Please model this.
Amino acid sequence: MSVRLVKFRRETLAGLDEGLAGLLSRATAEVGEGRISSWAKALEEVKGRTEFEVPETLVVTPYLFDFRYRRSTGVALTRFLEGLKEGKFVGTRCSGCGRVLIPPRTFCEWCFRRVDEWIEHSGEGEVATYSIAHIGTNPKVRLPRPEPIAVIWFEGTKVLRPNSKTVAHAAGILHRLGEVDPQEIRIGMRVRPVWRPKEERVGSITDVLYFAPVRG
Amino acid sequence: MRRVAIVGAGMTDFRSMLPHSSPEMIREAVKRCLDDVGSLSIRYVDGVLCASAPDAFDGYHDKVSIANEAAGAIGKPITRVFVGGGSGVAAAVSGWYHVASGLFDTLLVVAWEKMSPPYPHAQKLFQTIFEPVIEQPLGPNLIWIFALEMRRYMEAHNLSKELIAEVAVKNKANALDHPHAQLGAKITVEDVLRSEVMVWPVNRLDISPTSDGAVAILLASEDVARKLTDTPVWIDGVATCLDSQYWTNRDLAFPYYVYLAAQKAYRMAGIKNPLKEVDVWEPYDPFTYKELHHLDGLLGKPGLAPKLLKEGQLHRDGDYPASPSGGLLGVGNPIAAAGLMKVAELYWQLSERAGKRQVPNAYVGVAQAWGDLMQVGTVVVCRR
Model:
């Protein structure tokens, strides 16, 4: 089938700025033959069906987006990450609506006012919802062991919507569950954070290994 | 403000790995749209409004410029709207602002997506929509948040996976009648339940595919619309509504923002009882449960949509036909284009151009899309 992969010639690369040449040759190497048979199959299928002109030979060019980021985390998340190092969840409380905000912010989106009361939370709470991941970021790769993930709502922070059973707000985060058989997990189950040893903590959300059921 | 009509629509096939470039797809959809309005010349188009999801899919920043030539925007204004998955319907809403304001007599609304180029999978780019400091380090996949929302929704109304799977069966069967569909198929609930588990409770067949494709519609002010066509479809209500980006602070069981957007759009269109007055529903269905979840919001009654599904009321011949096009699950999900496809479907349904997909006696229709990190509701109400 006529699908052609563009590869850059050595002499082309030699004439380029070193950084760009490196990027292009990495693109060719790393993107490689990527899915060329799928493109060929798709072209074959489309040829019989689509009403508008299709290319005779499908040419596929490689491209690699090579970028790195460093982010300043700002006032609120900096205190949150520093708190994780100490084994606690740092949040803020709005003096207008009284909500506890975790992840913390320095403003309240409901009252649209500045928030500057800082609070600490143990991280104990309940499973608001959960699921079992069989894939990570690449959907083609199955995880060796399915991982339970959950949204955790922190104890004592729920605000109910008037006249309904739905929750209007709760301080909460996304994380993994551990020390639990997936079959046992229930919505509403009480959980607590399991921390890395203090000396291993770096001020990242991964300083919490997972949330585990509160037994007994 | 002036009344605004859809006077034509066109789309390309939705396919994975469509061999055309993005401009070629856009141009084809625009051409089909203009042909639909009696071979209207692009000269009569006053401006262009376009929508496409993250630049990273095309691997090309400022990707609105992809549409400049292909949508015939040279010498005219072009604007891009972007609210993630909600972009397609948001484009129709913004298009309405342009024409209703009196500043534009005709406006082309174009949406496209080319999701095939990123390798090994577009999914990796979705990771970057998560909050970067405390969510991305957990290595999430976009399907995670859907699975979490689906589980919460199932808990709230005690729903079975079997029932939710019927949405895939219905929509893929509907798509068999759509000439541009990617995944029209006769499948069974068993097929859905037996397909690979991606992130429990979401299986492979609960998910719409990655697709390439483009859709265009032409909007016109009332007096111009009446000159261009005998079958204008009026956009009588538009609204968008946001909820908080802090999705872990919200109850995912009910899309409150979709409810608020819908209520606003109904008020604008003079609809008092949507259950009685709306004939065709095109709720956003990137996942099976999402059609029900969104329909709950549009109907304003948490837990009603699953009941209607159980009674067979959401089928094309039911009282509340939902996604008669085949939806994203059947026609395909080139993100922004998929939302606009839903608006185009209302045009085809309400002007009786939907062929085998035609819902009988369709006078009023509602299309909705949803996006960003599960918190944007965009709604249009159309009437013939």
